[in-house]
Structure formats: structure tokens, C-alpha cells
Predict the 3D structure of the following.
Amino acid sequence: MKKGFWRGKFKNSGAEFKDTGFSNLASAQGSRLLDSNGKFQVKRTGSTNWFSFSFAHELISMSWGKFLGIIFGFYVLVNLLFACLYYLAGMENFMGGIARTESEKFFEAFFFSAQTITTVGYGRVNPAGFLPNIIASVEALMGLMSFSIITGLLYGRFAKPEAKIVFAPNILISPFQGEKALMIRFANARNNDLAELEAQVILSLVGLEEERNIRKYYTLKLERSQVTAMPLTWTLVHPIKDESPLLSIDQEGLEELEAEVLVTIKGHDTIFSQTVFSRTSFLPSAFVWNAKFKPCFRKSEDGLETILEMDKLGDYELLA
């Protein structure tokens, strides 16, 4: 099949969906709209860093390891700063000191700073001079403000609902009711309950229209787009029938039309009583033709429970 064949069939791909939020100008966009984690592949420029950057949002959304590392680093650096100020103000202006060497005096100043900023105040060492008292007063105020902000950030992180949806890495084109269907499988990786789930699958294709690269979007009609709950897995099924934009497209066509499948899952988190979202996208390399998913849940040995094997979520077998 000659190159450009699929671009010529671009106009006959079906009814276009125009509410994605993306532009149709493919020549002005990157080659991918979403990454596999659902993050938009958009980089903003032309504004100041302080205008576009939200420190609070970053601290709430980053990983726990990074968040705790920043908090610990902030704590150590602030105490080092005030330890230097106390040391320069003169440790002879503190009562109750037992340090003899200069290094011992510095560490005594450091631990006095830690006690002051956390308002522990053991009482053995206390400032006697005017300047050390001013420094300690400033640090105490800074400590109250800092730990108030950290407490708010911790609450924000714990109170922020987040869906942990895990998708099988491949899209399968499988036999379905005497025809073919596109299948996408996923599951909830957490033990919390998700209810009233809704799914939307959109196909993005890039083709030529009036000598320009135009990106168009098509809603893939699902056999079932809603479920009341998802205790196990959910396989989205798009029957490839007459109205489907995938009806006559093969793997070569998907690659030539720079296809991208965008998946959005919305559900109700019963713990937080809030709506949560999860997104991902698949490129043509993720398609597997004439295959079906293998079962990934089974009955427990005592027969009372169902075992969901998350490590088998993406397992499939090719059909003859």
C-alpha cells in the first residue's frame, strides 16, 4: 500500500468530536497529547516562573519521598542558619552552656535553635543578651508560621482524593460477537471503593486537509460506558462496526495517521465522597491484533473470596 493512502481516507473517518480542549492544528502540536500517566504534553513559556509556578500545588502533588526530603532539608538548613547567627552573636551570651571547644559551641547553638523553632524549650540553655533574644524571638515566630504551613500541606496531601487506576499496557483488537472490537482493560490498584464510574475513549488522527496537517478527534462508542462499581477489572469494549472510525484502519494506517487513543475514567471515591479522575493514552505501538486478555482473577482456596491478580492485568494471548 503506497505511502499517503491513509491520509487520503482521512475525511471519511466518521463524525468528529470537537470538545477535547485540544487544537486541530497538528503541525503546531507535539507528536503526543498525553503521556501514559495522563499528564498533558504541554509546556508553557512566555510568562514569569513565579506567575506560572505554584509552590503549594507542587508540594501537595509531588511524591511523598520528595515532599519529606524537602521538609527535612528545610528544617536542617533553617537550624544551620540560626545556629550560625547564635554563634556569631557569642555563646558567652547564653546561660547554661557546657560546651568547651568551638565545634561543641556551634552544635550547642544548633540544638538550641532546634528547640526554639519547635517550641520544645528544654530550658538548660537560654539567651541572656539582647541580640540573642532578638534572634530567638524571630526564630520562634518563624517556627510557628513554618509548622502551620507544613501542617496545612500535610492535611492537603491526606485530604486530596486520587484515583489509582492501573491500565493494561496494550490495547487489543479481539473477536467480538462475530466481528472485531477494541479492548482496554484496567483496575483499581487501591482497596478503596470507586462507585458510579464513567469512561470515555477518544481516537485522535492526523491527516491532510487542504494541504495542512489537521488533527481530528472521534468518540469511540463503547458497549458499556458506565458501571456502578469496579471491585475487579473493567474492560472497555468498542465494537468496530460501520460507524466506527477504526473499521478499515490497520496497524499501518494507525501509524501513518499518528493515532492516539485517549482514555478518561471518572468515578466517585466513597471514602472522600468526591469525584476522582484518571487519564492515559495509547500510541499505535500499544495495539495488539487478534488477541484476547487472559483472566486475572480467580476464586480463593476456601471459596469465600475472589483473588484479583494485579500483576496479570496486562496478560493476553494471541489467537490463531
